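Quick one, T. Sequence first:
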Amino acid sequence: MAPGTLEIVDDGNALQRRRQDVLQRRKMQEDALGKLCTRWVAREKQIQELIGLLGTGCEPAPSLLICGGGSTGKTSIVKDLLETVGARYAYVSCLESATPRQVFHAVLTQLKQNKRRKSTGYMADVKCDRLADFLPALSATISASSEETVFVVLDDAEKLRKPRGCNMPGTESILPIFLRLPELCRRKMSVILISKLGWNSFHSSHMAEVEPILVFFPSYSQDEISQILCQHPGVEDVKLYKSFLGQVLPSLTRMCGDLRDIGFLTGVLYQKYVEPIQEGMCSASERRVLWQFFAGTFRAATQAYQAGDDIWTAIQHASEESQDTCTRTKHHTSLELELPFDSKILLLASFVASRNPASLDARMFENKRTTKRRRSALESDRQVAAAQEARLKSPGPFHFERLVTIFNCLLDVVDEKHFVARSDRSLSASLFQQLNTLVGLRLLSRVSPEPLESARYRCNLDEKMAEKISRNVQIPLHSFLRYA
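Structure tokens:
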């Protein structure tokens, strides 16, 4: 065979090997992307960007600056990515290794995979005090013919910055040197800086020459935090746990942005949240009753967290007070104990609708911040006379739509009192079922044969029982009546 023919065959084999390598690397990237996206919720975009930049550890990779707030998954995702693709890397926490000597030692020790031995008195085998010693040692550690990229990860990299306004000898930052390691060592290397600060905070004239690629990790939203906490909840009733998170996360996310603190607080508070169910005081479907038992504990825990006090002590005191309250409420009437919480609110709404004319609804449920006109003495006398006349009259009928409107307004009063933000006010089958139950108990009377949503009702509840129910659910009933 002619020499030219051999060269063509060799070139063809080399091209075929390159194609196989490319296909293999793409498959590795797809596998790594799938595994990482499964493990790390709400970080698909950042993981895909990192895999596209870093590859699988075989191709050249640029230097990166990964920035974002605390508890956004920066460090964990980077380390998991490098472990998943089997890359060779050294991880250094600049909080623990704050001096150049400690950083040099940590990088060389991990890349050489040296371990402390008892025979040497557990002394470090690698000794490197100066930058002039570090660069040759690093070059010797990495083979020049190696095809894999070696990564150096510097976590909390802002700790290695040069102090602002300090021009003393020996205070120069080593970050510009690290970003130029591939050039200085002539090896396939990539440096990954992880920081809570952006690139503009790394103030140095030398840093402008080696600007890394920025990858930003935003803070988790409330829905993303809920997905993360529900990924491995460790609870039996996942539906109840999601409902619990929907109630407490709005307040917790406003109070603290650290995912670790939120995870700790939700874990502690959920144990107290389900105690009434475990003790048989209510069922899992009575969410508002559960919140009534839990509101004091939640308020005490959040106040203790904001004040920096012991959360366990605050929760224990709040639980004792809640048990005393529960013991006192056991002596209420059987009606108050047997009816669900929403049925009590529905009864109070029907009582208000039967006693008040529809023309007064806007005035009774208007925004409390609106300035009210002072009533004169004559108007007060008319109000007293109207109240006496209203007591002598029988309760008036009301439409279903008006009942639902007043019901939602009373729920807003309860939610505001217990610091709960609820946006779902849609009609549900449970509301219709409770309405039919109240009609069956003759607490409400249906006075028209129209379909359910167009029907008219009348409340049969007397004033004393209405006052008892209002005290039980902590609603000032007199504030919503015309003769208040």
